[in-house]
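Q: Sequence in, structure out?
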Amino acid sequence: MRRKSEKALAVVLASVVAASTLAGCGGGNNAASSASNAGEKTSTASTGSSKTSESASSEKTSSTTSETPSGETKVIRYGTHWVAGLDPNNIDEVTGEYTMAENERQAGLAALDAVKKELNVEFKFVQYAADTRTELMTSVLAGDPVCDIATIWGGAEGTILAQNVLQPIDDYADIFADESVNWMFNGKLYGHNYLLSNTERFYQRWPLIYNATLIDAVDTLKDKDGNTIYPTDLFLKGEWTWSKFEDYLSKLNAYYSNVASADGCVYDKVQAYETDHRFAGLSAIYSNGGAIYGDNGLAVNSDETKKGLEFIAKLFKEKYLTDCGTYDDGYTPQWTTAQGDFSRSGTVFTDCPDWLIGSATSAVAERNESVGMVPWPRPDDLDKDSEKYQQVITLGDSVGVLKGVDAETTKLALEAFKLYWETYYKTLGGVDDLKDYKSAMAASQASAAGFDIYNEKYGQDILDCFIWNSEHLSNDYADLLGLRVSWDDVLGKSLYGLEGMADYTVAIEENKNLFDNVIKQMEATLASDEVKDNMAPETTSSDIVVTLGTDLSKEDFKQYFTAKDSVDGELDLAKAEFNVSDSVDTSKAGVYDGGVEMKIKDSSDNEASAKAKVIVYNPDNKKAPKVEVKETTDPVKLDTDASTIDWKNYVESAVDADGIDVKGKIEADLSTLDTTTPGEYDVALTVTDYAGNTATATVKVTVAEAE
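A: Exactly. Output:
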């Protein structure tokens, strides 16, 4: 599965479409996934639609010269969770503007034109009406796949593979045989090819970046002439090894051990290398030719992998690598916190999530400080030109073909997919040959990320490292296979010594069954013809409001919960299990968060749960609630629908005689408010507690002038 450098001609493509494919990552976790709930939207691509006088050169859109096929045009449905970032003809319903950046839109139009001329194919872009995982599964189960080409947001691949809704595409590998496009055809998973990619990257999802200005302050990192020795200097000399990195961090540690960090940082002192140990661990593994799941299957306990993680454990023990804080389990790093500290110059090195690099470099640049990037170092005993020396890339959005799409359509869809993205990137880069795209775009991409490539002293060195990095990326498929969770646990617990976990080299052998079980289960699923429903039901809950002394064992909790399954529909709550928390005491007025939990399973044995707040109030209370309004509030936009105003934003606090929050029980007298006319208005708010007592307060509402 490793890509050799000669096969990485198009690695640089990734960040160009990052704005169209990321959500913030994360995956899963993100803007793109939330867009999946926007409702189904389809658009049949029209190659002639354009709002500008600009036109992409048709001479640079194709690698073939065949004439337009005759016969009826074939429509290929291209599904996505974010049609606004994929369809060049998509228009924002509010602004009336195209949703893609104009240069990307023109590239998309040129690609559509090439697909129509050479294959007589038109794309119909389909936005999923629900969560991607649910939409693909339910459509295949119904025998009516929602699309022919299915975009899968990054992080959902493992779930979708386990559903067994994707067809193997091994037989179509020859479509992507050319070196310029073979990056689109992802490696084998469990013996078959299932996934494609329409993005390549200049750098990994968590590249190693550094603050050059902080390095400049350290005298022990200067040569005999007083010139700073930067990480890029060591790399370009072939000296950027694990021992050099360790020595580098030790000198940073010594210098910054007494230098206070900015407010808001995790640590009081500036750190040498604050990071997320999971992504540092992955980088160390791949820099030594290891993997979690490699070309020959499970590699989580290979010598290369163990050696990489021994180095991480050494840095961690010596406190040269510090974590960015952990969650309550004591070993899971707090997501992206180190990037925030890097933005405040609280750490010299970090592995920065790619979707946050721009904000980090911008924040640092505002202080006139400089940011560089360097490949993760290699083991001392590995030659600098060794094919084993790679930089790890965890995949973003993937693409697959659903079961139920016939062979003829599948072949045509894959040909159209290949031609579309080949043309897209040629047009975007203004090149005739895709192999020239990297050199045409490298500087602009590095600069756009905020790396200081125009610095007179070391800018070119950063760019050279940037280009080398882009040519040595190797895919990590562990997350797609559902193996990362177990690996994260073993690595984290072994670093922190939790639950009696030994060093990784020992712990991984003792816990290898965790990985074997996941693999066996997935292999059995993929070997069958059965589509698996692995999506838990969706649940909701509402507050359970009762009076003092209520016997909750006699309460009908079904009225406070709902459960709906994507396959079974509304679930019968009579089959649910309800549990009252020991913390709930109905003899005392108060609010008990999570006081009642409901658990329920669907027909496929997927379990979901929901918790409801229990509010116990005194029905004999006769005192009016206490209300405190805010002194200042944001103005209301002109012509705002007054019924949509959230009046809780105008109230500092509202509590009954027992201190129970009743801010959710506010009503406003709208008769005095005119949102069509700018000005200041007095609006009376009435707060009612659970016993029926009321209190009134007046707030000032400012309606802003027209923008």
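Confidence is low (pLDDT under 50) at residues 1-40, 47-66.
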